[in-house]
């Protein structure tokens, strides 16, 4: 098959092996809808500036729509001889419209065309990722009320550290995902720039109107330098980074829940719809979705590396290497989208093992820091109080008791200011209630954060909430 890109300069047909080596239709067919969108805007602009007649424009636009439908319904023939999606659609147009079809590529090159298609595709894909992140945020948030009373051991270094309210834990993920959403939105800004009209690398002598195309495709601006934009794949690399960090966040969550669902932790019961069995051990309920969420993050993070290495040696402007941007880019988006889709129902369906968690909550001296801060409030220097409580913990460990159970003599031997009243601040429930700083796990603080998040996620009326530190006005 003769491809529209092989001009009269060629005297021989393409070697079959070269066709197989250079084709991208096997993966860039995903761009078909965006290629048609870009070509339609280009044809409309060409008619505006008088390069196409209105009738030619209408023929081209209608035929492009028809081709789009055929691809959508899987009745469009693909062949590696036509290299990529751009050639397939243009060739079909020429077969159906003859010379009118041959006019579509006026004032553009495949270099600005592919960059435009890819920007349109990435823009839509970023919007889907944003939706997926918001959906997952709501799944975390929706756990807050039901689990409000539950106290969890908080860890640092995977060692028991201080108690935290379960809703504080759920909102921690809302915060991480909020930063991910910000990054997605920010990346969208740099993606949403019109490349079309840069032509091969230097622009065109024809009277095209790039701002007209920009408006039709709902881009925010027109790229100012044709040499730069025909080769610019920063938006691809940046998307791969944004997706990598999302994947890393999902992976840390997955790792945590894999541990929490073990018999050793027994904090969590995972919904059976999201677990698989073992072919040999009938008792097994394996957290495969979580494991694969963790595992797939490796691919996504690897794709970022691939893309950075791909662009690092490329002189201006377009080089065919850039075709290799698509498999990692598509895979990163598709993988993260799928992980997000599964994470939300998993978060909603998992049950905290309240009894099991509460039964072991007195382990690990989670109230030791509270005791230290109690002493600080009595005027003891932090380092002194730190050392003193450390030795009390040591004695409690030796006696196999909690701090609250230490006899009065032991407490007073440690410091004369320690009397029976100290028992009022000891114990995990009291330790949680004693927190007070902004953003801490104190029930009143967590309640305030829940209301802020409710307003952010469900667009409820902004309220003015009072706090010890003054009035806080919620943002819409
Ligand atoms: N399939 C190509 C790509 O993805 C389209 C651009 C081809 N441009 C060219 N000058 N050969 O990069």
From TrEMBL:
Record's GO cellular component terms: cytosol
Chief location category: cytoplasm
Top-level taxon in the UniProt lineage: Bacteria
Pathway stated in the Swiss-Prot or TrEMBL entry: Amino-acid biosynthesis; L-arginine biosynthesis; L-arginine from L-ornithine and carbamoyl phosphate: step 3/3
Protein EC: 4.3.2.1
TM ranges: none
A Pfam family per the record: ASL_C2
Compartments it resides in: Cytoplasm
Biological-process GO terms, alphabetical: L-arginine biosynthetic process via ornithine
UniProt cross-references to InterPro entries, sorted A to Z: Arg_succ_lyase_C, Argininosuccinate_lyase, Fumarase/histidase_N, Fumarate_lyase_CS, Fumarate_lyase_fam, Fumarate_lyase_N, L-Aspartase-like
Domain Fumarate lyase N-terminal: 9-302
Annotated CDD domains: Argininosuccinate_lyase (cd01359)
PROSITE patterns linked: FUMARATE_LYASES
UniProt keyword list: Amino-acid biosynthesis, Arginine biosynthesis, Cytoplasm, Lyase
Residues covered by the Argininosuccinate lyase C-terminal domain: 365-433
Catalytic activity annotation: 2-(N(omega)-L-arginino)succinate = fumarate + L-arginine
GO MF assignments: argininosuccinate lyase activity
Matching NCBIfam families: argH (TIGR00838)
PANTHER family per UniProt: ARGININOSUCCINATE LYASE
Membership in a protein family: Belongs to the lyase 1 family. Argininosuccinate lyase subfamily.
Protein name: Argininosuccinate lyase
Species whose genome carries this gene: Anatilimnocola aggregata
């Amino acid at each position: 098959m003769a491809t529209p890109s092989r001009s009269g300069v060629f005297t021989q047909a393409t070697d079959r092996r070269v066709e197989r080596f250079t084709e991208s239709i096997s993966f860039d067919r995903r761009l078909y809808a965006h290629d048609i969108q870009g070509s339609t805007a280009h044809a409309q602009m060409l008619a505006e500036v008088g390069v196409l007649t209105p009738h030619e424009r209408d023929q081209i636009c209608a035929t492009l729509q028809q081709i789009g439908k055929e691809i959508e319904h899987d009745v469009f023939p693909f062949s590696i001889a036509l290299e990529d999606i751009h050639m397939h659609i243009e060739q079909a147009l020429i077969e159906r419209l003859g010379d009118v079809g041959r006019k579509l590529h006026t004032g553009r090159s495949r270099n600005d065309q592919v960059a435009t298609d890819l920007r349109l595709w990435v823009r839509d894909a970023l919007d889907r990722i944003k939706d997926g992140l918001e959906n997952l945020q709501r799944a975390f948030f929706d756990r807050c009320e039901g689990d409000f009373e539950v106290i969890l051991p908080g860890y640092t270094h995977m060692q028991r550290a201080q108690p935290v309210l379960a809703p504080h834990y759920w909102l921690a993920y809302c915060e991480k995902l909020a930063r991910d959403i910000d990054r997605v939105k920010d990346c969208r800004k740099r993606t949403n720039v019109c490349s079309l009209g840069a032509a091969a690398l230097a622009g065109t002598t024809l009277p095209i109107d790039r701002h007209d195309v920009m408006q039709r495709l709902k881009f925010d601006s027109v790229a100012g330098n044709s040499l730069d934009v025909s080769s610019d794949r920063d938006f691809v690399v940046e998307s791969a980074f944004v997706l990598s960090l999302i994947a890393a966040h999902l992976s840390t969550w997955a790792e945590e829940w894999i541990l929490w669902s073990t018999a050793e932790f027994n904090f969590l019961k995972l919904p059976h719809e999201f677990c698989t069995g073992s072919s040999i051990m009938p008792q097994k309920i394996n957290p495969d979705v979580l494991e694969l969420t963790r595992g797939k993050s490796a691919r996504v993070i690897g794709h970022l590396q691939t893309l950075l290495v791909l662009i690092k040696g490329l002189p201006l402007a377009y080089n065919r290497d850039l075709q290799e941007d698509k498999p990692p880019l598509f895979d990163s988006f598709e993988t993260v989208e799928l992980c997000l889709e599964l994470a939300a129902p998993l978060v909603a369906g998992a049950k905290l093992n309240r009894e099991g968690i509460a039964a072991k909550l007195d382990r690990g001296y989670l109230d030791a820091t509270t005791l230290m801060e109690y002493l600080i409030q009595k005027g003891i220097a932090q380092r002194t109080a730190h050392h003193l409580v450390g030795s009390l913990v040591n004695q409690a460990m030796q006696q196999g008791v909690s701090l609250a159970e230490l006899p009065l003599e032991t407490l007073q031997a440690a410091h004369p200011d320690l009397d029976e009243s100290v028992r009022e601040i000891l114990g995990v429930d009291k330790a949680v209630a004693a927190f007070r700083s902004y953003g801490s796990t104190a029930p009143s603080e967590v309640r305030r954060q829940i209301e802020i998040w409710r307003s952010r996620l469900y667009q409820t009326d902004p309220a003015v909430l009072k706090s010890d530190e003054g009035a806080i006005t919620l943002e819409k």
